[in-house]
Amino acid sequence: MKTELQYKTSLTTVEDMSQFASRFAKTVNTGVIIYLQGPLGVGKTTLTRGFLRGLGYNDKVKSPSYTLVESYHVVDRTVDRTIFHFDFYRINDPRELEHIGIQEYFTANAICLIEWPEKGFPFLPEADLDCYLAFSERGREICLIARSAKGREIIGGL
Ligand SMILES: Nc1ncnc2c1ncn2[C@@H]1O[C@H](COP(=O)(O)OP(=O)(O)O)[C@@H](O)[C@H]1O
Ligand SMILES: [Mg+2]
Question: Where are the domains of the chain?
Fold first, then answer.
């Protein structure tokens, strides 16, 4: 299901999720903030892995649940990008984000994927795109909602 602001689909297997994430990544420009929302084990990190593969990153993708952030550098013929993958699950006080200098990450050539963004409020900028993941009988449901012009471009490209 797709409108100008929303894209919804079901993903039965991990392979489906990876393929979707890879296609999704190819529609994303830089200077974009994506919130990954949903319960533990629903597939936020799995999606990020597929996303990075889609951008040509072939090394290991670790969950940043202890480190708060992992960064990846992807260079291809035309663009040079940094992808920051955050996981704020273990944050007890959002002020911890000030200590890691969170604002420095949100630059024009970065793509930021953020798990558990609600734990970082109010120190996070608004998302361009909200990505909601949910468990379902068929596997996983995913719903992307655009929150800015950049977000609408992503949905338009899917
Ligand atoms: N359709 C699916 N999409 C994503 N993950 C799936 C799917 N089906 C099963 N899984 C499994 O669910 C788990 C998701 O874990 P993970 O991506 O770490 O979740 P989160 O980061 O949301 O806590 C993985 O063990 C993965 O293999
Ligand atoms: Mg995770």
Answer: 6-157
Predicted pLDDT at 116: 98
pLDDT digits (tens, 9 = 90+) for 81-111: 999 999 999 999 999 999 889 999 999 989 9
**CATH of segment(s) 6-157:** 3.40.50.300
Whether this model's pTM surpasses 0.70? yes
Q: Are 66 and 45 in contact (CB under 8 A)?
A: no
Contacts of 64 (CB under 8 A, 6+ apart): 70, 85, 86, 87, 115
Q: Which mutation among 46, 114, 132 tests ligand 1's pocket best, with the greatest number of atoms within 8 A of CB? A: 46
Q: Residue 39 and residue 55: Cα distance in Å, rounded?
A: 26
Distance of CA 97 to the CA centre of its chain: 18
C-alpha 148 to ligand 2 mean position (Å): 25
Bridge partners of 114, per DSSP, are: 35, 86
